[in-house]
Amino acid sequence: MKKQTAGIHHITAIVGHPQENVDFYGRVLGLRLVKKTVNFDDPGTYHLYFGDKGGRPGTIITFFPWVNAYQGTIGDGQVGVTSYAVPVGSLPFWVNRLASEAIPFKKAVRFGENVVQFDDPHGLHLELVERAAGADNEWTIGDVTPDVAIKGFAGARLYSTNPEATERTLTEVMGLEKVAEEGDYRRFTSSADIGNTVDLKLVTGVVGTMGVGTVHHIAWRAEDDADHKEWQAYVYDKGEQVTDIKDRNYFNAIYFREAGEILFEIATDPPGFGYDESLETMGEQLMLPAQYEQYRSRIEDRLIPISVPK
Prior knowledge:
Layout: E1 8-15, H1 18-28, E2 32-39, E3 42-51, E4 60-65, E5 78-86, H2 91-100, E6 105-110, E7 113-119, E8 125-130, E9 152-159, H3 163-173, E10 177-182, E11 185-189, E12 197-201, E13 214-222, H4 225-237, E14 246-247, E15 252-257, E16 263-268, H5 296-302
Parallel strand pairs: 1-4, 5-8, 9-12, 13-16
Antiparallel strand pairs: 1-13, 2-3, 3-4, 5-9, 6-7, 7-8, 10-11, 11-12, 14-15, 15-16
């Protein structure tokens, strides 16, 4: 049996002040805050989820905001760059928007595609690339309308301490296909129309350190609970030290750190972010897992209040 993931489910990163995080991803980039909850392993910390209007897999970036935490170092053993897909013809809008917000950016061409590269307020490396594939994002905030809005992930650039081993994991475990090579990068694709492109850096450099401004892990898609259990057994049979299944309310998750030291997760598409809220109200209220509901007042007192763009 050979398994193949459809693509990226979500990417999770560590950032600084939560209001700065919400202002940038919600107002500047125009993503929807689809879930406001807490870190299940550290309920005194927010876990914020941003994505398209419906919070579909392949559009979700999530954050642990650690106020006053130390700055991390982006390097080997991490996702180095998170790449977003925008509609064809929309890059001039985004160039003007970044300039109007005084956000430094660079233009580049990678694998024949025009990209715009920039950092978020806490140091995460991001880029925008025009892609025809993928449904438009119907979420509108200010000038960010569906004809220019971020669709979801284009993909990610992986920095590995052992690129050959990471390539084996991508192809032999996750089932991605090698499709191109350019300079120091090799490109792999999956079957989804978003979150389907991974560029692996073929040379090593500085080993990354976890902290503010770094990606914590990248999560891949499983179709449902039955498929997820198959993935757990499959990954174990491939020699990876995979975890037990974790209930994250909006998906189930398993984790393993591949040989290039990048933390991989495999997450189920269902039940999704409408599990405890309606589509219309997602992200408006602080949602807590059942085990923490009795401590709501105490948790809310510890969390920094945030204002969400409408």
